[in-house]
Amino acid sequence: MAVAAHPGVAGDHIHPAPEGFIRKYVFSIDHKVIGLQYFITGGLFFIIAGLLAEAIRVQLIKPSGLILSPGAYNGVYSVHGSTMVWLVIIPVLTGGFGNFIMPLQIGARDVAFPWLNMLSFWMFPVAGAILFSSFIVGAPDAGWTEYPPISLQGPPGTTVWTVAIFLIGISSTMTGLNFVVTMLKMRAPGMTFTRMTLFVWASLATAVMNMVATAALSAALLALFLERVFDVPFYDPARGGSPILWQHMFWFYSHPAVYIMVLPAFGIISEVFPTFARKPIFGYKMIAFSSILIALLSFMVWAHHMFTSGMAPWLQLPFMIITMIIAVPTGIKIFSWLATLWGGKIWFTTAMMFSLGFILTFTFGGITGVFLAAVPVDLQAHGTYFIVGHLHYVLVGGSVMGILSGIYYWFPKMTGRLLSEKIGHWNFWLFFVGFNGTFLPMHWLGLLGMPRRVATYDPRFQFWNDVSSAFSFVMAVGLLLLFINIAISLRKGKRSGANPWGARTLEWTISSPPPYYNFKHIPAVLKNPYEFSEPLPYLGLDNEQPPGPPVPTFTHPTEVGATR
Amino acid sequence: MANVSTPQQKGMGPGFWPVTLGLTVVNVLISIFIVTLPIDKYLPEAAVPSGEIDALFKFMSVLGNAIFVYVVGYLIYFSIVWRHRSTDSPDALGIQIADNHTLEFWWTAIPTVLVGILAVFSVMIWYGLQNQLGDVLTMEAIGHQFNYEFRYPTLKTSVQNDMHVPVNTPVTLHVTSVDVIHSFWVPEVRLKADMVPGLVQTLRFTPTRVGKYRIICTEFCGVGHSAMDAALYVDSQADFSKWLAGQAKGGSETAAGVAGVPLAKGVADQGKVLFGQKCSTCHSIGPFEQKIVGPGLGQISDNPNHPNLITGKPRIAQNIAWILVNGYDGPDKSTAVEKPPIGVMPNRQANALSNRDISNLTAYLMSLK
Questions:
Q1: What's the ipTM?
Q2: pLDDT digits over B85-133, tens only?
Q3: Quick check: B226 and A562 CB within 8 A?
């Protein structure tokens, strides 16, 4: 084998795969199994939080509220938000895609600390169970932000909430540390920084943010816990505490968290676009550099969530201006993706549809984000449904569309089977139309005077709330199709082979699903992976690759129902 | 397979320039629509900074629209023109081009300049907000779970849930809260400030249009949050004076007595806890002379040499409770007592005291030795 040509490369020391069911599927230390565990657990939490979201939309069909008391409603939206952020988007992007894809793309056999990885994962379902158990004692009711002093008055579930989120925070910090070390130390020989895939670049930026920022949240949560349980007055102004302190600590984490939630999605889009446009990603260096720049800037903008909270007026200026500056690196990415489309031979697979949809919705959410950066406009929009619309455009139209694109793209790698493109296209269109119909009206509802976090509202807002609720069901049906598609494919999906899309990154050079050890021989990397007209730039691959550029396993893209 | 031909391309591809022209026309049309959109018709501009804020909003909408239309327009156009066609071979590749420094320079430089222009414009509007006229009428709004309390300098008692301001009069509004974070938002004024306990924030605006508007709480504050609102009446000068006079008269008449307070049922221990939360910032439990803001209250009931209450009344439970109910901000014209000390004793609304709280506090004060 070619390993002989690379005597420096460790080739022979492969641990045997574990035998028992428990060590193989439950307490596994294999990054791929852990990745799938994140997907399954995250998917379960997504269903729960999605049902909570539908409860919100059903409640708001009538101005006086349809199904829930104000108290119950407050619990529902608080747990919906907390679950989607901490138990779905962050774990699925970082824990799911990060675990499964990142080590494969850098040519590693596992992450740097597999046992730590297992521990990180198992804190996550435990945290989820703890969070949902709060419904028994009275769910937290002050939103996912839990501003004191109202969170000091909140029901007992608020304490449960702090414990759950604290655990998730520790898990994130450990995963961040683990991934940073993995990406810095375990890349295959020849995999210089400029030969890493853009998903790995995005994961690196994300991991650094996870490692650094989450500590601020953990500290804030610990203080809230101490105040609620042991009466230590950190936040209660009546006893010398500061409610604003919480907001600074919370957003010092939660603004970077916005990018923790969207940078990996950027990474996914950057993989999907070149593969299905059949050409190199445009402006590789600028996309990679802009990820790092966004990660850096994200630490300097947190107080833009607090323009109305009370701070020295002059302090608003740097936060306003730096926030606006983030539009520049984000714009670079969007323009680079557009340029990647130009001159392509575009396959409209479901993965590509979600990536294309992502550009539209994320651009819209990004633009309304700049609106909110401007202090005078934020004074009108803050705390209203405009914010609700904006944040769903970036988190659902951004992160979730990225996740869906990634699932359709990498599902064959994870399972060895293709998802149905026919159901996939229905999934995309129902989701896309439902999404825009649900969240677009919220922008003008907010500007005209509808505050967020209300169980009842002014009757003059009923029409657009009903439109929003109606479209939310369309979106839900679209998402239901994803689960149906997965269920059908797992039973009788078409075998995908190693590389159904003719993609060029390392994970596609090994079988689907990959073997326990990933690479029998660690390959050497000669170039960055995106030059479609050239042979694969890897030496020492386990299986015999035909000379020349990789070819899709299909005689024609229509076989996967791709061209329209 | 090794010799896959890589297609070459001259120019920007079929239809690029007509599409660009079309998108530009669409952009101009939408921009005209945005600029001429009468926001005032949908959401009145009822106070001075609202017009400037809407101007900034329109400016941003024009910029944002331009970017959105080009991005989505090219997205759709490229998807159509550069799609994999059924006549293409399965392994057909796109044009192998990985970067273009000129293009990348411009799509970094142009947004940077646009952001710069936007930042300058935003800072100008922001600067205007910091320098709004105010102080012709200075008043306070205090958030409670779940209602608003308003205080006017010439009224002895506060007004609940109705805020009146005279038209064309610069208003300075100080906002705070007594319990949790609330917020003060009037969509028609385009201003908002959180009402944070322990912190006073200031809004300045000049109402320009007579009418009734909604004050809305946008910070979650508890089960009553959804229903927490109040009315802002912008009155003509004459109406406002009339309203204020009515309040002043009604105010002294309704200065509540202590009839509802169950003085006999007060529990000193519970009063002690409340004292720590509500009173100890301004009052010690030392002797009368040990002042923080108000006098020390430790000997209020048992020291025979202790002066009378600030109201001039004897130190009995009923009179102490009266102060807790009504607060104290100066001598009553009807009784001649000496000048009050610095500081104002807030009334029960401001301190959020129930009848039971007042009886407990009174019992505690009477029990101090």
A1: 0.91
A2: 878 887 888 888 888 899 999 999 999 999 999 999 999 999 999 888 8
A3: no
List, as ranges, residues 82-141 from A with C-beta within 8 Å of B. Answer: 141
Angstrom distance (rounded) from CA A458 to CA A78: 22
**Which among A325, A367, A380 is the nearest to B67, CB-wise?**
A367
**CB within 8 Å: A244 and B196:** yes
The answer to whether residues A72 and A155 touch, using CB atoms and an 8 Å cutoff, is no
Would you call B40 exposed, middle or buried from its count of C-beta atoms within 10 A (0-12, 13-18, 19+)? middle
Phi and psi dihedrals of A562, rounded to 5?
A: -90, -40
Q: Are A291 and A270 in contact (CB under 8 A)?
A: no
> Alpha-carbon distance A216 to A172, whole Å?
12
Give bridge partners of residue B163 from the DSSP assignment.
B232
* CA distance to partner chain A, nearest, from residue B361 (Å): 17
A557 touches chain B (CB under 8 A): yes
What does the block give as tokens for B313? Answer: 């009344």
Query: Using CB atoms and an 8 Å cut-off, which of residues 30-89 of chain A contact chain B?
Result: 70-71, 74
- B18: closest CA of chain A, how far (Å): 16
Cα distances (Å, whole numbers) of residue B341 to A413, B252, B278, B283, B328: 79, 22, 20, 13, 11
Pairwise CB contact (< 8 Å): B90 & A282: no
Q: How far is B166 from chain A (nearest CA, A)?
A: 22
d(CA B254, CA B275) in angstroms, rounded, equals 26
SS3 content of chain A, % helix, strand, coil (to 5): 70, 0, 30
The model's pTM is: 0.85
Q: Extract the tokens encoding B282.
A: 């301004």
